[in-house]
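Please check this record.
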Amino acid sequence: MKKPILFVISCVILIFYIGTWGYLTLGIANPKMLSGLDMSGFIFTATTVAGVSSALVLGVLGATKPGSPLTMQSLSARDIPAVDLDKATRYLTVAFLLVWVVIGALSVIYGVLLEAPAAADASGSLTDLEKKVEKAHKAVQNFGMTWVGMAVSCAMVLFGVNK
């Protein structure tokens, strides 16, 4: 019974990961999306979900021997007879890896490579919306820089480090 629950929790984490980082990244491009948001709570949620997702990705890659195909977590089909849980888990694992790469790459592009949105008007003061965009950009920038380091670690784990 524990394995199907873990599968459902993993699905929920993936949905939250896509939702929070997608919304944050889109909010930088379209600041009006951020107007009704409590940025502190949203960024805390987004970074927590990103950390958990990254740990899951590193766990999958860590269970794989260097140079061999990805090791997918196997769940017994006996746990849920009507669902091929083994096949669903393989798809979920691949989805996690792909989403992690896409969101990480977008964070690098939006947060690190592209110029930050204009922060202040001629008087030097920021509106509430501009402050929210600045916080969102900083969070995406921090995750983008962190993600590059995790991506290098993942590559080293996946392909092995030769002496």
Observations:
- Residues 2-159 form one domain.
- Confidence is low (pLDDT under 50) at residues 74-80.
